[in-house]
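Much of our argument rests on the idea that a fold can be written as discrete symbols. In the encoding step, the backbone of a single protein was reduced to a row of integers, each denoting a local shape. This step matters because it turns folding into a mapping between discrete strings. For completeness, the protein is quoted in full, as a sequence line and a line of structure tokens:
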Amino acid sequence: MEARRALQASLTLLILVTSSYGGHLKSGPTLKMDQALLTFHNQLTEEVQVFYTSDYCYKCVYQHLVTVKPDNNASEVISTKFTLSLQVTRTRNATHCGWSRAYEEGGHYTVWIQMSGGASNPSCTEAVGKEPNNTYLPLLVAVLVMAIIALLFVLVPYIYRWRCTSKCIKTICCQGPQYSVDNDISCEAEHSTTKAKSTRLRSLDTFRGFSLTVMVFVNYGGGGYWFFQHAPWNGLTVADLVMPWFVFIIGTSVVLAFRSMQRRGVTRLQLLRKISWRTVVLLMLGFCFLNYSPRDGPLSWSWLRIPGVLQRLGFTYFVLSLLQTFWGQKEIPVRATHWWNPVQDVVLYWPQWLIIILLETLWLCITFLMPVPNCPTGYLGAGGIGDNGLYPNCTGGAAGYVDRWMFGDNMFRYPTCREMYRTTQPFDPEGLLGTINSVVMGFLGMQAGKIIIYYKGMNIHILCRFLVWAAILGISAAILSKCTRDGGFIPVNKNLWSLSYVTCMGCFSFLLLGAMYFISDVKGWWGGQPFIYPGMNSIFVYVGHSLLGFYFPFSWEMRSQSSHWEWLFQSLWATALWVLIAYLLYRKKFFLKI
């Protein structure tokens, strides 16, 4: 018996090795991006079951992967995005061997299930049949290419200025018939032009353009990398950062723009008209132009999604503008020595703070106190197979329940948690409760604008205030989340726009805006290129890439599905095209205003 098993094992191993190097008897499945092949060889005399779960999935129930018959083998394609935990059992409740591993893209892995000498339970031995691909090589090459391009953009203007300076010196030192007064005038004009400074804050347009550029890149797929896509539920990825940054800049821009209009003598009624018009346009853009279905055609009511990105931005802008119109149009008093002087930029606008505190209290009360049918009160999980499968229909807790009650099926039907958590309920990341915290996020941006106005000309004070706010918000996020992904009081969650998510993003926003303000507006080391161009035409770029994103030349049907090379090139190409379009519109002085 042992000799027969040894012979079968040798033959199986021979077949596996030959199949790994092309001399296979039967071709295996074609692997795509973020996939690997896992083959199980069962040398036992009874059938075994293999179950799996993702370590990123919080308290998820193990799912069936494959059944392997005795003295046989079975293969299955697995995901390589996150670390997997696997269990091999002969009965459903008895685990004989288990392990946790991060598999790599394109690899062929083999697991031998066999009885070890004298052991009561079988053992699982793993081997690599085919080495995996280098997943991050396309990303590394792209970073190097972009670094070279950025270096060229820095060096070319420097060389041009050096040549101009040399010509000016030559003109001054070498007075001859070949040099005319016109050359002197042109050099002086060019020199004065380079010295001229714009009164517009470049850091705001740069920050807006940077967040928009990253948003366009991740909307085009981010090269297929999981960290350029939204997190399945709790936690942060690059894609989860960009929209809060955009909302933050909306708040900052509202304060600075309304301050400028106040100085020009614009009345409150005129402001209300402008606010209402911009809000209606943003809402209509979101409802009509960005609501379409390949199944039912444009503007189909069965597909119409009531919440949306532009809808949230429009409502956030409306609330922030009302706060600034009624309680923000104040002249900053002459600074005097008071006990509250260090926080005067906060105390001066106490009615706004009172409204924001009431809004956040409303969010907390609804989220943690509102009863949800068949769900625990205060539930913040994804439901589905998460939390040991106890709450399968409780996706999003109170936030999901409120949206389903208000919007029915007219909301986002494929949430980010659907694939990993096996959820069946629709959930909208731009839902009603999350919009409350979007207003709070924008209000933090308003505070940044007030600091810039209040400490105008005092750059050290502005930067220090930004650092203080970043520290306060960062510590708050750390306390609320307990510096963990899933185990905090309020986890960092973009789908819910949780309070910890807002404070965490507020911290990043103050740090990033402060860095750009220092580099661009204080030191003048960087003009914000190329991000400043889409930042000055943000509505055009966002709506344009949403409407035309699936058409050539922005995208095409990819031939290679097994690696990230083509997808990453397509994402970078499409993003670069929109930056180029924004630059050409900037040269033509065309700015889409609402």
Observations:
- Residues 137-195 form one domain.
- Residues 1-27, 172-197 have pLDDT under 50 and may be disordered.
- Strands lie at 35-42, 48-54, 63-68, 72-79, 84-91, 94-101, 108-115, 122-130.
